[in-house]
Amino acid sequence: MSSTPLNSETLLMLCKALADPLRQDVMRLLKHDSFGVQELCHITTTPQPGMSHHLKILTSAGLLETKREGTSIFYRRALLSTDNPIRPLTLEFLANLDQIPLTKTLEAGRQKVLEDRGDQAAQFFARCSEQLKENQELVASFEHYAGCVTDLINSQSFDSGSQALEVGAGESPLLSVLAAQFDHILAVDNAENMLNKTRQIVAEQNLSNVTCLLTDYADLKLDTPINLLVCNMVLHHLPAPADFFKKAATLLVEDGRLLLIDLCSHQQDWTREICGDLWLGFDPDELNRWAEHAGFCKGQDAFLGLKNGFQIQLRIFNT
User: Would strands 252-263 and 311-318 be described as parallel, antiparallel, or unpaired?
Assistant: First the structure.
């Protein structure tokens, strides 16, 4: 494939776009995150008209792209085409830019935005936990992908004494599957009312090898690393999905497995209201990039289309 011819205008546009401290801050903030205009305004304490101007310059230079999440628009770093003549220069510049840590002010602003997203999710679960399972089944009932999940888990080789962890367990339909294969399972949730539902399942099914723990996943610390980490329809509720992978890598043993089940990208904005979704699914390549950056290798996967138009992706990532 022939590459696009290099011209001085393209080179000049890149140099101009990156020759501004605020625009450099934006590029660093978007290294592995997606933020809306107002979120970037809050983080950088920049008025909205000025931020929109800077984002337009970065987008025109091919450095940013937008991702529509229902009625919301988020900015993220653009994927650079292999036939882009200034791709090597751009990647080299960004690699050096990324070595500069965020200032304390920027990091505090970023954390505040992520906390606000997390609070939004927590408020939803506190308010709607009784209807959540019924609402989620309108999107993707577990029975539609239960067999595929079981096959994926059974296809992996785990030694005796292996341990598993499920993030955001809630009313997990997977606990009995995991309990039959692993010596010990840790079921984690950061919402008391959701963890009470987990405890009820454990008691009703007499799952003596399951321990329930009330904690935020980001704060989780383990004495012993685990062999399998399961994230079933939870990632789209997390404020910083890319950070999930980095945390997962710290919890797993060498040659551990991350089983991630979530929706592919969609535009069904009503899932925000009735299911509390922060993100409208994920592009598979987006998950691959986050996983690779966290040190994972892509393993087995499966994609299932549902009659209601949603598509489920079931992914294994190896440490």
Answer: antiparallel
